[in-house]
Model the fold of this input.
Amino acid sequence: MTAARLGALDPTVFELAARRVMARCDELARITSTPGAITRVHLSPEHARVNRLAAEWMREAGLQTRQDAAGNQLGLLPAADPEAPVLMLGSHLDTVVDAGRYDGIVGVLMAIEVVRLLQRRDDDTSGVDAPARSPFDFGLEVAAFSDEEGARFGKALLGSSAVAGTWDDAWWELEDPDGTTLREAALEFGLDPGRVSEAARRPSELVGYLEAHIEQGPELHARGEPLAVVSSIASARRFQLVVEGEARHAGGTPYDMRRDALLGASEAALAVERICSTQHHIIGTVGQFEAFPGAMNIVPGEARFSLDLRGEFDGERDRVWDQISRELDDIMGRRRLRWHTREVHNAPALFCAPLLQDVVGEGIRSTLVPGSAVDGSILGSGRPEDPTTLFSPAGHDGMAIGAITDVGMLFMRNPDGVSHHPDEAVSLGDVALGIRALAEAVAHLGAEHRRT
Ligand code: HGY
Ligand code: MN
Ligand code: MN
Done:
């Protein structure tokens, strides 16, 4: 399927595909460990159920499916040459706690629709349905990664790190809030920890990785645009911090005798906000916060909190971490407290490959064709010829996959940028445009690949 032939398709083809994607997002949203909310963490029974459902949808779209040794669900549309490398398209099916229904999920389902649209069935005189094939000199493989969020064990990108061959066996000892180790969870899920390296792919096997994702920020909504090219993905470091003071009687302990761990940690959280909010593309968030022993009439002797620190450039992010650390030394020294920390996640910034940024831009341009309107997302209505390009403060699987191949990303508008929240949304029209843009991007890459 060439870009020209895609362009000849009736826009309703993309709308029908988008309707299927939205309906399936709703169906997957019902697979949750917390009825009434959406929570689907790594190696849970819910993870197994969505992998089975995604595999069914992949097979129905003509793909050959398998679950890899790390629990990722894959669907392959081979090229005519079975030894040819593949372009990987996908996202993740795991969620944060009390999540929205599109973060990750919509990208996996859009990838299935794009591969369905692009596939070719060789004319077969025997009348038997010939197997679907990629029309390019590379195969197309849909990846439904697991554990992009790190919601269960704290370390994110576990599924895509296994594919990238950057797995660290120390992760097997990571524990979830119930004390279950990653190793125990993998065994219970039916995986063999000793074979996780079988999930790893060699650079020579891939021509690249493309991911469609909601923006998880307010930019596109504010600009009134449906789609954007992603230039780079923020680097991330995640820490668990402990502040130690002294538990004392809430009534009998005068203030000058207190070593209140909660107040020390509270000052630290405010310092994170003050330091990060004055820097460009540096984002620090304290998302978890607990005080111990946690009684109303006891001065907290210990406080535990998390820090999620991101930056456009690793060096700047690390400089800010040093600044925060110095500030914590001051705060805890003044309050006669002690603090220590454990880093649980560290992923470098990912700069999207220029070629993949270009083909995603071509894909977006293809949606500018007047008349390719879908449910009111009227196109060609004075939107800039040059597609918007955005930095992604949100993390994505491309941060891991970038270790072995080029990465490109397409953003779709999500109203007000609400994400990691049940109100997360994306419109049918923008998903239809996103499917068209992603398919066109692949077709442009196919043409480019033939030329090289
Ligand atoms: O945390 C993130 O930025 C991503 O949603 N995992
Ligand atoms: Mn997320
Ligand atoms: Mn995501």
About this structure: Residues 217 and 417 are 4 Å apart (CA to CA). The pocket of manganese (II) ion (ligand 3) is lined by residues 92, 103-104, 148, 213, 396 (CB under 6 Å). The two ends are 19 Å apart (CA to CA). The chain has two domains: 3-233+349-451, 235-347.
